[in-house]
């Protein structure tokens, strides 16, 4: 029987540590930057459920993320909904978008599927640009509600919320990976025709993965408007989210739930450092360079590299 | 006479302007060892792709155990008892040999994780691959890959097993090994359709043979009668 307790102990420790840090006297910028890194942990983990396990490369992350953000804004504007409700509703709406997108596109394979997912970003962005209620093309300024006790600032609270979301996302991804669902998704990635011929309901499994992936991306986006106190279509539906969410699992390793976490922490942290020390514009360049380096030198990511090193050390003994 | 397990009636398939199958009809009875031969491009693989659900037939009907299955997805046909091996082995290469069998055991037989692993190991023992259980399937030799294809098909607990050139590229003793496995499977009650270019193997194994040429059945009969047929000799045996 697989031992699960180390994972759950680690998950509980992560949440406890995030709460402790959130209540500590650490510099406010730390929370501002860490929020983004944790958000990328959620996005990369979500991407990996469909892209890594099933091998369907989704370029539409920004669409699910943006719709999650706008769902939160609509609920906040219309009913002053609390953050937890915004996140749950965003996950539901983005999950539905994932299901619908999957229904329309998952019969396509390879590059055709990927191109179709890019189109979803432009459709969603155009819809928001033309919706006056959420500010249209110019966006809308949001006034943060009072922060909940015992947090000192809203950013600190958002940091803890995003840490919890990251733990939930990783737990879901890990469950999928080690269960029969994950085995079915891997079978699809290895040979979709063989998978179907050996009983795997490929379309249903891909739809499930697309829905869960979309829901988690939406949940990650829901906290964004309050984090920025502002929302506008170009930044909410930025292709940078799509590229980063794809690059992080590739760098960390797509075959294991830990890969996207490692990739997101590494790449997210480097991006934050580059933003502060050099320029925000260099971020995308950093992602691109790292992605090329890893695709060429370590196609199985950091985890694959470590596995190969372990094997080399063992065989040299 | 035993009841028909599979009835293919007037099945056609076109790829653009090319007719791959033209109103093919055949019947396979329960427990039979059935051979399907024909030159390259004659439509053998297209026919079994239509039966297994990898392709949709354009005309006619395919009835399995009394049920029309033409509109069913491939995974639904597998769950009804049709399993196949692939001409070019298609293992789940990121998985171990054992896990390759766990997939159909979980998705077709609906065993839980522990039972599926135990059953997969039992099948690997019967097929002679138990020592490779933990090996990644992309590290297997050609004959081991062929055995894995058959083991994976066995794991789906089929009533009908379609073996698509399971002996292609194998040496003489390896052909005997695979043939032995197919005989054993048939003894357990599994009906087998064998597609093969190795004529000695087809002759030894099959009780009845059909020869396809240009998408049409040109001859049907016992192995002995098939090799004497002038049409078969012209189209396939190179006489």
Please tell me about this protein's structure.
The complex is a heterodimer of chains A (317) and B (239). Chain A is mainly α. Chain A has a single domain (5-316), classed as ABC transporter involved in vitamin B12 uptake, BtuC, CATH 1.10.3470. Helices cover 76% and strands 1% of the residues of chain A. Chain A is built from 15 helices and two strands. Chain A has helices at residues 5-23, 28-51, 61-79, 83-105, 111-129, 154-178, 180-190, 192-197, 202-222, 224-228, 233-236, 239-252, 258-277, 282-297, 301-316, and strands at residues 140-141, 230-231. A two-stranded antiparallel ribbon of chain A has the order 1-2. The longest helix of chain A is centred in the middle third of the chain and has 25 residues, at 154-178. The mean pLDDT of chain A is 92. Chain B is globular and about 50 Å long. Chain B has a six-stranded mixed sheet with strand order 6-7-8-3-9-10, with helices on both faces. A four-stranded antiparallel sheet of chain B has the order 2-1-4-5, with helices on one face. In chain B, a hairpin with a 2-residue loop joins β1 (4-15) and β2 (18-29). Chain B has helices at residues 44-52, 74-80, 97-107, 113-127, 142-155, 172-187, 199-205, 223-228, 230-237, and strands spanning 4-15, 18-29, 33-37, 59-64, 67-68, 82-84, 160-164, 191-195, 208-213, 216-221. In chain B, α3 (97-107) packs across α4 (113-127) and α3 packs parallel to α5 (142-155). Chain B is built from nine helices and ten strands. In chain B, 39% of the residues lie in helices and 26% in strands. Chain B has a single domain (4-237), classed as P-loop containing nucleotide triphosphate hydrolases (Rossmann fold, 3-Layer(aba) Sandwich), CATH 3.40.50.300. The A-B interface holds A 1, 180, 183-184, 186-187, 189-191, 193-203, 255 and B 52-54, 73-75, 78-79, 83-84, 86, 90-95, 99, 102-104, 106-108, 113-114, 152, 155-156.
